[in-house]
């Protein structure tokens, strides 16, 4: 409909948490799906917490109904669009899943008070995601977009990035044979050089990151993806604003022009079409 150069599933970040046993609100026409609290606990001050080893096994994770729906959707898209445009499958990464499972505030405090507990959770979740990546590739995914929003310097201490996020992100980048693109939200400049060394084919950046600075830091180590703001200009701007943002990312050296993060449901068709109608990139 919009002339985008890829097709992508799923459309939310709750598939993986539901597969681990969380309850999910599937949202509405005006609100995206979200993971509901209460299924798991993490007390960053040493109180009663769930044990990471109690989550469903890798086999049980892959048997989740929605995981299989995503797998089938990727298969159908591969048959209908494969060879014409890349089929992209999204995977939510460990820290982001944990923040949904136990609450973002608890997760952030735990990175400071008991980082070893956070790393245990990440190790267990990573084991489940490895199988998911291979399942999606077997279903026909050309690109796996791994989203680790909670590894943003806006949430965790950049000095702790390597131990809290770098280890599992490096491991996930090396799984399978598909192209891997990593997305981390927010102002990632403090950790962008380290992110560039994690082995990803592409790095997806938000509009908050200056595209020229991003290109200077990353160089040719990875293809830059983005960084047209999903709120400004896509949600609140005009088609002309969208074109200007696309041109800025292009001129800075981004290899793939795309929204910098998830597109708000209320975004107008005209603004989305503006990303491809002129196509000066």
Describe the structure.
The chain has 281 residues and is α/β, with parallel strands linked by helices. The protein has 11 helices and 9 strands. Strands 1-4-5-6-7-8-9 form a 7-stranded parallel β-sheet. Strand 6, helix 8 and strand 7 (202-205) form a beta-alpha-beta unit. The mean pLDDT is 95.
Low-confidence stretches: none
Query: Number of DSSP helices?
Result: 11
Percent helix among the residues? 40-55%
Query: Mean pLDDT across all residues, rounded?
Result: 95
Structural class: alpha/beta
Biggest sheet descriptor: 7 strands, parallel
What is the CA–CA distance across the termini? 19 Å
Question: What is the overall shape?
Answer: globular
Percent of residues in beta strands: 5-15%
| Quantity of strands, as a count | 9
The neighbouring-strand order within the major sheet is: 1-4-5-6-7-8-9
Summarize this structure briefly.
By secondary structure, this protein is an alpha/beta fold.
Main attributes of the structure:
281 residues; alpha/beta; 7-stranded parallel β-sheet; two-stranded antiparallel ribbon; 11 helices; 9 strands; 42% helix
């Amino acid at each position: 409909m919009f002339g985008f150069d890829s097709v992508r599933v799923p459309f939310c970040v709750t598939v993986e948490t539901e597969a681990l046993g969380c309850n999910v609100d599937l949202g509405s026409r005006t609100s995206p799906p979200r993971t509901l609290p209460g299924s798991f606990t993490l007390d960053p001050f040493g109180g009663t917490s769930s044990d990471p080893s109690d989550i469903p096994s890798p086999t049980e994770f892959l048997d989740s109904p929605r995981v299989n729906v995503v797998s089938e959707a990727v298969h159908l898209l591969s048959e209908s669009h494969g060879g014409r445009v890349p089929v992209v499958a999204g995977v939510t990464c460990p820290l982001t899943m944990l923040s949904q499972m136990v609450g973002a505030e608890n997760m952030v405090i735990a990175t400071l008070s008991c980082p070893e507990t956070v790393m245990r959770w990440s190790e267990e979740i990573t084991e489940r995601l490895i199988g998911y990546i291979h399942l999606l590739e077997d279903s026909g995914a050309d690109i796996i977009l791994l989203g680790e929003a909670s590894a943003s310097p806006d949430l965790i201490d950049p000095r702790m990035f390597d131990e809290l996020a770098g280890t599992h992100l490096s491991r996930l980048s090396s799984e399978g044979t598909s192209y891997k693109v990593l997305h981390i939200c927010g102002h990632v400049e403090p950790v962008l050089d380290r992110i560039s060394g994690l082995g990803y084919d592409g790095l997806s950046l938000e509009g908050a990151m200056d595209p020229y600075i991003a290109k200077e830091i990353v160089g040719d180590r990875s293809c830059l993806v983005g960084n047209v703001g999903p709120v400004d200009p896509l949600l609140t701007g005009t088609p002309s604003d969208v074109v200007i943002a696309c041109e800025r990312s292009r001129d800075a050296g981004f290899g793939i022009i795309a929204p910098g993060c998830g597109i708000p449901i209320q975004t107008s068709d005209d603004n989305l079409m503006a990303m491809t109608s002129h196509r000066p990139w």
